[in-house]
Batch of 3 targets.
Target 1
Amino acid sequence: MRLKARSVQNTGIPTASMADIAFLLIIFFMVTISFEVDKTQVALPRTEIRLEIPKQSAYVSITGNGLIRVSAGDEISVSVPGPEEVLSFAAGVVQNDPSKAFVLKADREVPYRYVDSVIDALKQAKAQVVYLLSDQETIDNQEG
């Protein structure tokens, strides 16, 4: 009795679904990534209490050497020469979204007159909410 030889199967890793997996991973990382719009490094002053700030806020940063950077919250921050340009930037942001919150991030070594001039510019631009960022644990709600 003659037996037929079995056909030899090719051994290999099926790669048909590899492209699907790679595509799903790319989609996952695109959806879950969050970019920090204001990467200005400042040494923040200490405070007793710090509240959570909204995620889509506009940022104004003042570094220790007096450099002012601004961001509307959806793009990378850019340098501006002085408080007058902060006023025009903030007026444009308020015109687009009147309820947009502003976060002021100032180095602890910056003289207060610079911080005050930026706050005045934000007031003149009719910013409704201005947060002063500090170096402290955040709390979600405050009791009492």
Note: The two ends are 95 Å apart (CA to CA).
Target 2
Amino acid sequence: MLFIACAGIFTSCADDAFYVSTVDMKHNFWQRGESTSYEIEITDTTVCYDIALHLRNNESYPWTNIYVISSIEDTTGTLERDTTMCNLFDITGRPTGHGLSNVKENTIVLWEDYMFPHGGEYEVKVSHGMRNVELPGIASLTLRIVKNDTIR
């Protein structure tokens, strides 16, 4: 019964997403310089979009935070580029994310109220900005885009 209730909650939360795509990291390692790419088709340019990355990690991730470099590109080049920091563990070493097992999910807001300048194909790229060549303990990255119905 609890499973059915949880499934209903997760299904209803996913229904408001305009775009959701997950990339699983091979062997739970995120290589430096390895970008995950998400291709998006935008048809409605009259509303704003909230763009977030859901990062799933486990306790083998050795640092308390992570820096994520993200960009939005179209056929003309890079439109936006930003670096965002997220704490994956608090100062006592407890995971900050949500989850029932040792794998936790943190939401990293990349852009709020983003308005795409024109209809067409876009690519969102995400890479990590940590000094190490590979980051252990990163299970997956999910890009989630929601129309926030703010009309400009």
Note: The longest strand covers residues 138-151.
Target 3
Amino acid sequence: MNKRTVIITGASRGIGRATAMRFAQEGYNVLINYLHSEQEAMRLLEMLKKSNCNAHAFKADVSKHGQVDDMVSFCVEVFGALDVIVNNAGVAQTRLFTDITQDDWRTVTDINLGGVFNCCQCAAKHMIKNKKGRIINISSVWGMVGASCEVHYSAAKAGVIGLTKALAKELAPSGIRVNCIAPGIIETDMLKDYTEAELGELKKEIPSGRLGTPFDVAECALYLADEKNDYITGQVISPNGGFVV
């Protein structure tokens, strides 16, 4: 049986990196997407190849439709198929609402929401031909409940949830399942500006008593990608330790 193939956007670090590692461990062909973090992407690629994973890396700005289209075409050319795409690439910014500039708004929404649109559209065109596929969009718990001083980020991530639900209905007749993961507070570079005291206070607000790890999110993605889970579509799964219930 041929291996299944996955594209993971923003795969050089954090959640994307963990997701690439878990899919590789399960025998997937893996396309690592990156934009700025080339060294990290190449280190991940080298590690996966040493583990006998069939992997490639592709530089693309997900906010640019043409670059995403080239990435999907490259994936199909080198691997022969595209079975799963995990739309993880994103940026965060903490800023008072009254201080958000037009450029801030465009940057955050173009990448976090526009990038998901571009990746979904380019992947769907290929998947529809084959009458199968899995699209997994990474949102955020703040897309569910909103975050003070992150209005533009919260709005974009809420948009990802709406996009997922609508697209799931549209693509279900074509055998394509579209789902969303809305992670809680995860230990990634997005927390690098928090002090130990601030992280300690965050942990107190989480019933599970700990921050999430990138692998907590990766496991959800792997579950949603599994062909056995064919009756799950249009859903939002939030690994957040009980932070939001």
Note: The CA atoms of residues 90 and 112 lie 5 Å apart.
